[in-house]
Design a protein that fits this description.
The protein is mainly alpha-helical. It is built from 4 helices and no strands. The longest helix is centred in the middle third of the chain and has 30 residues.
Length: 92
């Protein structure tokens, strides 16, 4: 039983490493030309930007008090702006 759990843990760690931003960026280093590298890195930035936006949206959907209507939209928008502002401040 321990062996099965250990193997499952190894696969989970490997999957997380493959999906990590560092692993994704490392694949860009395999490109032969600077132009292809820049293009790859731009796609990675876009992917990470979308992931950050999606995470902020998910967090804000679960924390709003209203379910529908303009009040709910305003709450989610304010929450997303707050989350993205905190993320940006964390980068400094």
């Amino acid at each position: 039983m321990k062996t099965k759990l250990t193997i499952a843990a190894i696969f989970a760690i490997a999957a997380a490493a493959i999906n990590s931003p560092a692993a994704q960026a490392a694949t860009c280093d395999n490109h032969k030309t600077k132009l292809m590298w820049r293009s790859c890195m731009s796609k990675e930035i876009d992917r990470l930007n979308a992931a950050i936006n999606a995470k902020a949206l998910d967090l804000c959907y679960s924390k709003t008090n209203s379910e529908r209507g303009p009040a709910a939209v305003d709450e989610r928008l304010a929450c997303r702006i707050d989350r993205l502002t905190k993320t940006l401040q964390g980068m400094n």
